[in-house]
Amino acid sequence: MKKILLVLVGALFLSGCNLQIIDTTWKYDVAYINVGSETIVCDISSWKDYENSDIIQVKCKDGRTFLGHASTIILQSN
Fold first, then answer.
1. Which letter, b or e, does each residue of 30-57 get, where b requires 16 or more Cβ atoms within 10 Å of its Cβ?
2. What is the largest CA-CA distance in the chain?
3. Which domains, ranges and CATH numbers included, belong to the chain?
4. Tens digit of pLDDT for each residue in 55-67?
5. Per the confidence metrics, is the pTM higher than 0.90?
């Protein structure tokens, strides 16, 4: 019982520090993709992340598709 209480209190403190515990955003509108020294901005038609990997695939509304590491792609919802 003490362990459950400790976990709940810990989660409360983490959420009080403006940390998101569970990722609930699944719809993104814009992607910023870093390619070398250039940043490509595109409107997202669909995106996919792969299990057990840090790879993200972004399909833009203009027909382009990008596959890259999560550290080089920023997804933004408006």
1. ebebeeeeeeeebebeebeeeeeeeebe
2. 54
3. 24-78 (2.30.30)
4. 999 999 999 999 9
5. no
As a whole number of angstroms, the distance between CA 29 and CA 54 comes to: 20
pLDDT tens readout for residues 9-65: 776 665 555 555 566 667 899 999 999 999 999 999 999 988 889 999 999 999 999
For 23, other C-beta atoms within 10 Å of its C-beta total 6
**Would the CA dihedral through 26, 41, 63, 55 be positive or negative?**
negative
Q: Transcribe 8-34 into DSSP letters.
A: HHHHHHHHHTT--SS-------EEEEE
